[in-house]
Fold this protein.
Amino acid sequence: MTAFAMTAPVLRGVVTAMPEAVSENADLAPQFGSEVMAKIIAATGIERRPVSTVHTVSELAVVAAETLIEALEWARDSIDLLVVVTQTPDYPLPSTACVIQNKLGLGAQVAAFDLGLGCSGYVYGLSVISAMMQAGNIRRALLVTGDMTSRMISDDNRALAPLFGDAVSVTALETGQATAAFDLGSDGSGAPYLISKTGGLAEPGTPELFMDGTQVMAFSLRQVAPSIARALTTAGKDIADIDHVILHQANALMLRTLGHKIKARDDQMVYAVRDYGNTSSASIPLALCDYLPKQPPRDRLELLLCGFGVGWSWSTAVWSTPAPAIAAIVQVP
């Protein structure tokens, strides 16, 4: 495990773009059975999910980024870094970051690259951008996170079809008065339990997601709480000091279990699975977009963010930042 504290970028804004089309889990009852779907909805807390068969990560990212840039009145030539975290890139090559850089009309000064991570990817991306901004002459950055996971799941997959939604978030980050403590880790022995074996060079073909839910739960209960404890210790904080605890939005049962395990208060825990499902690396920023507009305005936020999943990999950030100027969700036809 790697834990460290550092000067961090300020959260200026976050926008999530998602398909306008929604799949209602209740509508899957004729296919999978009413009793089965009722149990799945009750256990997961997931009632509906945005899904698409036509959008790409870059298409949704551009909509979110344009909304963000306009709201913040950022000049495009003031953006120096673009990091994309996805496991469903537009193409095997070039990087989706380069595709988005071109679509947004950003200048050639922009460093743009992809990170191939899933549910832990938002915090990993934040840590990479924080390090680059601290080390170099970078003032503004965009962090793009998200996947079109439903495209990797067949309609008759009862275990996974009701769980995953499609969304892409863009976070605007800027140098300023913010700090963060990170804890990052991985355990590749868990790879077989959450994987698409097909779709790469090892096993060509159409990507198809497989998940062993029992192993995922066991891994999460084993690694998440210790990672959070290390990050809090590194930050010199206690769980009581945190305003909002935003864990990867896998399902409601896991969130409740982990919240109890880390001794978070109910009013600290953020839940955003009911209308969106599991949106992979977009789930943490999507939760911010869903939750923050409903809260009383405040000048500064103490955030605890934790992503965990495919890899296995996990990542926690204790982030003290001024509140964002915009947190919004945009639906795309």
